[in-house]
């Protein structure tokens, strides 16, 4: 099978693409790939490092308000379409796949205009702007949330492909992070780059965990690690700039505190980790809040909005959850019911259906 795949900007888009690539490689040893991404976002380094052929296009996101910058964005978009048409025709794939980020818009559009089958995966509980635009050029839309209903397109509830890979990962040994095997663990993560607002609250909390029976591991994001290192903290607080393969640590975590990005929620479901979600209010259409509420309404997570966040409120929420064994069990049970355990298999089956229609 020959596959063009595109995703960009964040791990939340790139990791599902990588999960799909891994599944196709597993099922079809002769498969070949071409990845189309941006020239200046994180995928330009991640994808070539995995020996996946990579083509870059210059892209720029559209401003929501009237702006002269949008003129430049449209020019880049048109140039991107032309380059994508050339690269896609040269590669001649069996299917073209997009998993999000504005770079997918010219890729999927160009593929459809050139007569190729297209599949798009949406990670969030509402459609992103690029995927909204791409609906008329999409043969199959795969959704991560069962609550998503879309008109005028063939869509299938598959879950997020990162959840299947998270389920299969082996749990970390806590001692490899100098954490106690006998104490409960609270893991606080605000994304690979961190969150300035939440990190300011966390800085004020470092000494307030001093008399707690549990340990706290805080992943600051690389941008904020040096600031945290300078601060006094209690002995049961551990600071990390970044943890690779986070679901492996989530599997031995008692309470997880995080944003509510789609891939993070899929990992929470896959690892059955009780969580306190602090949705970012700075994202398009407040989609993280809507993602979080999909779990909260099913008693599968606890919500703490950023506008209500303080170090006292955060610690109270952690204490209330970690000490309520019945609630912990209920959340774990509900997360297990929500998780699609074979997401990549379901997506692969949809890919095969489209390829076989050629």
Compose a concise summary of this entry.
The chain has 358 residues and is α/β, with parallel strands linked by helices. 42% of the residues lie in helices and 15% in strands.
Basic shape: globular
Helix content: 40-55%
Rg (CA only): 21 Å
- Sheet bearing the most strands, described? 7 strands, parallel
Mean pLDDT: 92
CATH 2nd-level architecture of the largest domain: 3-Layer(aba) Sandwich
CATH class of the largest domain: Alpha Beta
Spatial order of strands in the largest sheet: 3-2-1-4-5-6-7
- N- and C-termini, Cα separation: 12 Å
Stretches where pLDDT is under 50 for at least 5 consecutive residues are none
Q: What is the SS-derived class?
A: alpha/beta
Tally of helical segments: 14
Under CATH, the topology of the largest domain can be stated as: Rossmann fold
From N to C, what is the helix and strand string?
EHEHEHEHEHEEHEHEHEHEHEHEHHH
CATH superfamily of the largest domain: Glycogen Phosphorylase B
The overall number of domains is 2
In total, the number of strands is 13
Q: Strand portion, in percent?
A: 15-25%
């Amino acid at each position: 099978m020959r596959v063009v795949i595109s995703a960009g900007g964040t791990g939340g888009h790139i990791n599902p693409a990588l999960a799909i690539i891994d599944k196709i490689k597993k099922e079809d040893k002769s498969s070949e790939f071409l990845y189309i991404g941006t020239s200046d976002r994180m995928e330009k380094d991640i994808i070539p490092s995995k020996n996946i052929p990579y083509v870059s296009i210059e892209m720029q996101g559209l401003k929501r308000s009237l702006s002269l910058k949008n003129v430049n964005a449209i020019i880049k978009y048109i140039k991107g379409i032309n380059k994508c048409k050339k690269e896609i025709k040269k590669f001649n794939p069996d299917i073209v796949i997009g998993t999000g980020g504005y770079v997918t818009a010219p890729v999927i559009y160009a593929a459809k205009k050139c007569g190729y089958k297209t599949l798009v995966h949406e990670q969030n509980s509402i459609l992103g702007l690029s995927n909204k635009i791409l609906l008329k050029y999409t043969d199959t839309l795969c959704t991560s949330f069962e609550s998503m209903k879309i008109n005028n397109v063939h869509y299938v509830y598959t879950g997020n492909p990162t959840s299947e890979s998270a389920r299969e990962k082996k749990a970390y040994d806590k001692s490899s992070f100098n954490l106690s095997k006998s104490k409960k663990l609270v893991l606080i993560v605000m994304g690979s780059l961190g969150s300035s607002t939440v990190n300011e609250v966390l800085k004020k909390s470092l000494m307030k965990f001093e008399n707690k029976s549990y340990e706290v591991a805080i992943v600051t994001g690389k941008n904020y690690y040096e600031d945290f290192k300078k601060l006094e903290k209690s002995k049961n607080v551990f600071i990390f700039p970044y943890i690779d393969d986070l679901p492996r640590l989530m599997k031995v975590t008692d309470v997880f505190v995080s944003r509510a990005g789609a891939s993070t929620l899929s990992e929470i479901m896959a690892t059955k980790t009780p969580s306190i979600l602090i949705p970012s209010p700075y994202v398009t259409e407040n989609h993280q809040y809507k993602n979080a509420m999909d779990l909260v309404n099913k008693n599968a997570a606890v919500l703490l909005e950023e506008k209500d966040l303080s170090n006292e409120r955060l610690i109270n929420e952690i204490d209330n959850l970690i000490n309520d064994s019945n609630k912990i069990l209920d959340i774990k049970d509900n997360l297990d019911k929500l998780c699609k355990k074979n997401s990549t298999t379901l997506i692969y089956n949809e890919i095969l259906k489209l390829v076989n229609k050629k």
